[in-house]
Amino acid sequence: MEKTNKKFKSEGFMQGVIALMFSQVLIKILGLVYKMYLTNRPGFGDEGNAIYSAGYYIYALLLTISSVGVPNAISKLVSERVALDDYKGANRIFRVGFCTFAVVGLVGTIILLLGAHYIANVMIQIPEAEMTLVALSPSIFFVAIASVIRGYFNGTQKMSATAKSQTLEQVFKSLLTIIVVEIVAIFTKTNTAAMAAGANLATTLSVILSFAYLISYLRRQKKYREKMNIPPPVQKVKYKRESIKTIVKRIIYVSIPMSLSAILSSINRNVDSMTVVRGLKNFLTEADAKIQYGILSGKVDTLTTLPLSFNVAFATALVPAIAAARAKNDMDSANKRVSFSLLVTILIGLPCTVGMYIFAEQILHLLFPAQTAGTVVLQISAIAIIFSVLIQTINGALQGIGKVMVPAIALGIGVVAKLILNLTLVPNENFGVNGAAIGNVVCNVIAFIIGFIVLKKNMKIDTKFSKFVLKPVIATAIMSICSLGVYTVLVGAKLAMNKATIIALVVAVITYAVAIIVLKIFTKEEIYMIPFGQKIYSVLEKIGIYK
Hints:
The chain is mainly alpha-helical and 547 residues long. The protein is built from 19 helices and no strands.
């Protein structure tokens, strides 16, 4: 029976984290694929990206408000009940949460549907975005209730189900975006606004299909248990029935602090959607203003957020790991985990920042050959990458030690600074859309500084200058010199730019990895924390790097 139950049993913590990490990386890669298709597709391009993104960011804000903190809140409350063997209590939390957020999601859908005209014409001043908002409106309802199911799965240690549903959603989204946009293009004779609406309709369809998978998983799990005669978990404590009102209050109380940072992050993006086109129209035509916004929101945002997917596992793992260490009064382990996570985050973010800055033009030519504009705005935005990934890790640590409001306050101050800079710089012809990129960098720098100061005050983390700054900078410099040198030689030898770029980026990855090893940035203990760390250290010992 032990073996037959393997399919639906609770998985280990690191299994879930690894599943989520690969899921997030795959989601970002698939997102880049369909964004490349849209941007390079004749009749869509940067103008289509502007219409698509403006509508999508408004939808994302309403979605964030209605459901973003729900998975973590449901997960926390359900896991608490499960830990006490109160399975009836856990199931009641799930049922009440499902019904509550079905209502919340429905309200969000109605608001977006009825407010689409006003939002598109007055708030963001892109009338063509109205159709995209209407196409997206049903998604809010389905995502709200799907978030409750995902929270339940996470709380019962079935995080792989969440990862699979998110991955499937992105797969459906990528495929359906291409199919729907092509169908719309045929029937509308390549109408840009209609294709943008079609792309967002694909988002709605993929959300519905992902929701169907989650419901199917729940039913299959129940049927499997019935077929294998697996008895329900034993209720080992006396069940105390809580009122619906009490449960709803508990869910909201837990979810709001967790939601604030995500809400402010969504507001941060909507600062651009509400100010960039409006500001650029002071010296550009409306069509040119939309194209500039499309460059920022379509290509640049997609590229600069890609590194976050590689770092998300650390932010995800830190919250429960630190909370568990605090419960055991083992803050030494918590401090080591945070220090290690910050080091890895720097080693992920720094080369991405420098590499994207150096090869900005080449990357745009490689990925978006039909729409190559945006080199300067990508270079400016790339500076924010190192700060945004550090914020991600710092916020996970702060939430783990119970400082859940600090990330929201830090980002809130950053968003205010960004808004002021957008309103000041974007209407200025000398800055234009680059002013919005500068505002984003300043926003991330402010949020990082505040979060890091609070973290240092509350945890004894090791951040030695030589290890956390000097050696990573040296490794990145070696990477940059080698990759840029290879690119220059190849282009000088008349090799095509795209081929030279690919080879140079491969050289960058290899030289950076070698530099990290040679500089001995990781200690033996830290290498052991990496998957297969003992085997890796053994190899490094044999070749004489570590002794």
